[in-house]
Amino acid sequence: MSKRKVSVEDKIYAVNLYLDGKESQRRIADMFDVSLASVQQWIRNYESMGANTFTLKGNKKYSKELKQQAVLDYLAGYGSQYNSFTTHSYQIIPPIVVMSLLMLSFNLLADGLREALDPKMKSM
């Protein structure tokens, strides 16, 4: 695909086509002669920052409330690995038990096969 400069109006139109369910991402990429990744980025930007995301130059402007909420979430531990483990630890226990039992059964099977097939073990 060639790199094509797409106007702000076209990007907004393209995103609205997708969000309204009128076109697929692939079809929009073909319509504007851009990559699928570009269309997906337009959609993510539009959903997070609104229509003015395409007109902003330089650094993004975040509201004071959004910044404060991000800091409070960070301090509260939301999104951290520790928080994920403490809130979802019940999901990790069953796989650990299954893997432990599987390893134990393979060890017992290997010991049994060795005793049955190794001639040096039979003489002891």
Overview of this structure, please?
With 124 residues, the chain is mainly alpha-helical. The mean pLDDT is 84. It is elongated and about 85 Å long. The chain contains seven helices and no strands. The protein is 68% helix and 0% strand.
- Unreliable spans: none
* Total strand segments: 0
Taking the sheet with the most strands, its summary is: none
Whole-number average pLDDT?
Answer: 84
The succession of helices and strands, N to C, reads HHHHHHH
Shape: elongated
Please count the helical segments.
7
Using the CA coordinates, give the radius of gyration: 28 Å
Key terms:
124 residues, elongated, mainly alpha
Short recap of the structure:
With 124 residues, this protein is mostly helical. The chain has helices spanning 8-19, 25-32, 36-49, 64-76, 81-88, 93-117, 119-122.
